[in-house]
Design brief:
Layout (H helix, E strand, L loop, with lengths): L3 H4 L9 H12 L3 H13 L6 E6 L3 H12 L3 E6 L7 H9 L5 E2 L6 H12 L5 E4 L3 H9 L9 E4 L2 H12 L7 E3 L4 H24 L7 E5 L3 H12 L3 E5 L3 H9 L3 E2 L2 H5 L4 E4 L9 H6 L5 E4 L9 H7 E8 L2 E6 L4 E5 L5 H4 L6 H21 L7 E3 L2 H15 L8 H7 L7
Parallel strand pairs: 1-2, 1-4, 2-3, 4-5, 5-6, 6-15, 7-8, 7-10, 8-9, 10-11, 11-14
Antiparallel strand pairs: 12-13, 13-14
Helix pairs in contact: 2-4, 2-5, 3-4, 3-16, 4-16, 9-10, 9-16, 16-17
The structure holds adenine.
């Protein structure tokens, strides 16, 4: 079918739309908070006529966010936030079935990735939704003429927030950003339980390894690392954590993991998983001492965490051995297996976080966009946290949808907690 959005889009194959619709509807079953917001948005039209550009992983969950924004009256354009994370059937459904212009093809090269991003920006968005800050960075570097018309933006992920805070610190940030990642209903659930489950899912789908008794090295003990370590232990793995932050290392120790420097862990690990947001945390010197057969996976936002150049330089030969697994044979005969080209393995080899956690992350996105519209242009160019009332409301809605009831403070307790008189 050729609609205006088809002609304005770039997707793999519009014939995949039917499958995409079925899978988007399947995800919707686990996204009750987004459904509630979508219903209200449809009635109240808080985003009427507002132009949005979203640079997000194009998944079934993102599609449900997109539908809520569209039903709220927004004119939304989407592009991928990673070359390997797009679900082509979802992209097709968005364009053909739901009329949302989308520029995303799974496996696109870097040039296509940036062409798509620029095509999304051609819509002259008033609000940007980022996952990794590539939209904001491109606007600030190459499309500064758009800035005047921009009300603000949102950022989904830790890596993006780090970039944006660096921009704000340099005085380079030209419009306000709401750091969705900082909401409790985002990082405590998405980063921990979402990344925990989907990372093991991606590695399992790619390799079919048995986790039990494996030595798993978790590089980085932020919320994502905590989740992965917890779930790997749950599968019977022996987990080693490496960290540069003393407090986190202490926490990992008291959570019961072995903590040691990366160089030491490198000689022990069977499976390495990076979740630091940093660069070259698995470097050549580490690969030098790894065991034959070691598996290397990244679940951080960018493919910068494993030094891929060092790996390629060390290898005498390389070959794909199964989907998402590439074997690097080193001079001394050892083989190292790189998963998903070092890109985030949970979205490359699996489907990303399950819908139930994305429900809360994307509720934060939708309500933050509404908040930006309501603020009009009153916010200054800084990185803001999601307003507390929004965070709390999402927790309440999620609990209600889960059928979980909680207690309320009595008047006596409320008075006690707000007084300083009572003591020993
Ligand atoms: N990030 C991690 N998992 C995701 C998903 N399922 N959809 C969109 N973004 C994600």
């Amino acid at each position: 079918m050729t609609t205006e959005s088809t002609t304005k889009s770039d997707i793999r194959d519009p014939r995949l739309a039917e499958e995409g619709v079925r899978r988007i509807e399947w995800a919707a079953r686990e996204m009750p908070v987004i459904a509630t917001i979508r219903e209200r948005f449809a009635k109240e039209q808080p985003l009427r006529g507002v132009r949005l550009a979203g640079c997000l992983h194009v998944t079934t969950e993102t599609a449900n966010l997109a539908l809520a924004l569209r039903d709220g009256g927004a004119e939304l354009v989407l592009c991928a936030s990673n070359p390997l994370s797009t679900q082509d059937d979802v992209a097709a459904a968005l364009v053909v079935e739901y009329g949302i212009p989308t520029f995303a093809i799974r496996g696109e090269d870097n040039d296509t990735y940036y062409r798509h991003l620029n095509q999304a920006l051609d819509s002259r968005p008033q609000i940007t939704l980022d996952d990794g800050a590539d939209l904001v960075a491109t606007i600030h570097r190459e499309k500064r003429d758009l800035i005047e018309g921009i009300v603000g933006g949102t950022e989904e992920t830790t890596t993006g927030v780090i970039r944006l805070r660096a921009m704000a610190k340099d005085g380079a940030l030209a419009y306000p950003i709401i750091a969705v990642n900082e909401a409790n209903t985002k990082h405590l659930f998405d980063n921990r339980y979402g990344t925990g489950q989907s990372t093991l899912d991606g590695i399992t789908r790619a390799t079919n390894v048995l986790w039990a008794a494996k030595q798993v090295v978790v590089v980085g003990y932020g919320w994502c690392g905590r989740g992965v370590a917890m779930r790997a232990r749950g599968m019977g793995a022996q987990v080693i954590v490496t960290e540069v932050d003393a407090l986190r290392a202490l926490e990992a120790s008291m959570d019961g993991y072995r903590v040691m420097p990366m160089q030491e862990a490198s000689a022990i690990g069977d499976i390495f998983i990076t979740l630091t947001g940093d660069k070259n945390v698995i470097d050549g010197s580490h690969m030098e001492v790894m065991k034959d057969g070691a598996i290397l996976a990244n679940s951080g936002h960018f493919d910068s965490e494993i030094n891929l150049e060092a790996l390629a330089a060390m290898a005498e030969s390389r070959r794909p051995v199964r989907a998402f697994v590439e074997e690097f044979r080193l001079g001394d005969g050892r083989r190292l297996f790189l998963l998903g080209e070092g890109r985030l393995i949970n979205l490359a080899a699996a489907e990303g976080h399950p819908a139930s956690v994305m429900d809360m992350s994307f509720a934060n996105q939708a309500l933050s966009v509404e908040h930006l519209v309501r603020q009009e242009k009153r916010l200054s160019p800084e990185v803001y946290t999601v307003p507390r009332e929004i965070d709390d409301e999402i927790a309440r809605l999620k609990l209600a949808a889960m059928g979980v009831h909680i207690d309320e403070l009595t008047e006596e307790q409320r008075a006690y907690l707000s007084s300083w008189e009572a003591g020993t």
